[in-house]
Design brief:
360 residues; four-stranded parallel sheet; alpha/beta; Rossmann fold
Length: 360
């Protein structure tokens, strides 16, 4: 039986979103289903009659290699379920739920695919609890969702960090400087860990392993004594000093923003070693640009699986990547389960074995 399904991209953008949309459309077309993409995330559901773009094979041709999302996205608005540093609103307001149901009924949609991170999937779970047929697709460059081994966008972010380190290495060695690069990741150090190893970092500071400035300085001094007169330091934005606080930037609304730890580390290195130090904050460069081949493939697989879950009637489920297979888990079991780097993990040990310091 032919179906009409909606799809939206919510929260922060990342490479691979368009690959998911393309995968959804192609899998749906094989079933003779119609797909409608809501503009600017959940907010598109609140416009009278729906603010949407019909997604066809022609409309989604050639978008897989594009970064961002052709639908637009937002992490603000009426559906925000997480505010501040991890706190959450209990429910999306009833009037917003009512308007959402009205839009879906007017458009005669049989299901809604919600692509987003922990906050967006928390919203998806609330819609499911209100009787809306929802399928979740996990999206975050931070790779910090416990219910999936990997999320699309992560590999592209790591590639960005590695490329930046390649470039910083040449200028650092030319001037015999320390270069501190601050990367994204919020509460988890996956981007810093993988990007730092791939890019040849000498010191990696992550939230899961509290660091001491003097130990970082000692690592710099040791490299100088060994004749390595430049040092690359990767700092996750949520890196935590021992007995210290994470550095945050005040914002008017929405999620709390990390920032400033990279400059703090650079200042301490200079003060303790007299080493000339420069700071580079990658910021949204990690979200932009074309997705890597891995993220194109993973995004496509996620989109196809989302359509399969609709066909199977497994609403309230989220696509999940485990043991190289694209499977599914309940959204309720996936949200609020942050995946952190384990300090004794094989990946951390590999870094230590090649001489990388974690400042601990």
């Amino acid at each position: 039986m032919s179906k009409r399904i909606g799809v939206l991209t919510s929260g922060g953008d990342c490479p691979g979103l368009n690959a998911v949309l393309r995968g959804v459309v192609r899998a749906a077309d094989n079933l003779d289903w119609k797909v409608f993409g809501f503009v600017d995330g959940y907010e598109g559901l609140l416009v009278e009659g729906g603010d949407f773009i019909p997604l066809t094979l022609a409309r989604t041709a050639g978008i897989m290699q594009l970064g961002g999302t052709i639908l637009g996205t937002t992490n603000k608005g009426h559906f925000i379920t997480k505010v501040g540093d991890g706190s959450s609103r209990t429910h999306v307001p009833p009037e917003v739920i009512a308007r959402t149901k009205k839009t879906l009924q007017q458009m005669r949609l049989d299901a809604l695919i919600c692509i987003g991170g922990d906050g967006s999937l928390t919203t998806a779970q609330q819609l499911h609890e209100e009787g809306i047929p929802v399928i979740g697709v996990p999206k975050t460059i931070d790779n910090d969702l416990e219910a999936t081994a990997m999320t699309f966008g992560f590999d592209s972010a790591v590639a960005c960090v590695a490329d930046a380190l390649d470039r910083l290495h040449t200028t650092a060695s030319s001037h015999k400087r320390c270069m501190v690069i601050e990367v994204m990741g919020r509460h988890a150090g996956w981007i810093a860990l993988y990007g730092g190893l791939a890019g040849g970092a000498d010191i990696i500071l992550i939230p899961e392993i509290p660091f001491e400035h003097e130990r970082v300085a000692n690592a710099v001094r040791r490299r100088d004594a060994e004749g390595c007169l430049s040092t690359l330091i990767v700092v996750a934005e949520g890196a935590l000093e021992k007995d210290g606080q994470k550095r945050m930037r005040a914002v008017a609304e929405g999620e709390s923003k990390f920032g400033g730890v990279g400059q703090a580390v650079a200042d301490e290195v200079t003060a303790r070693t007299a080493k000339e130090t420069r700071t580079c904050v990658l910021g949204h460069l990690q979200r932009g640009g074309a997705p890597t081949t891995l993220d194109r493939i993973l995004g496509t697989r996620f989109g196809v699986k989302a359509v399969e879950l609709i066909a199977e009637g497994k609403f309230g489920h989220m696509v999940s990547y485990l043991d190289y297979q694209v499977l599914s888990v309940l959204i309720a079991e996936a949200v609020h389960r942050i995946k952190l780097v384990q300090p004794d993990s094989q990946m951390v040990q590999t870094c230590r074995h090649v001489g990388i310091s974690f400042g601990d």
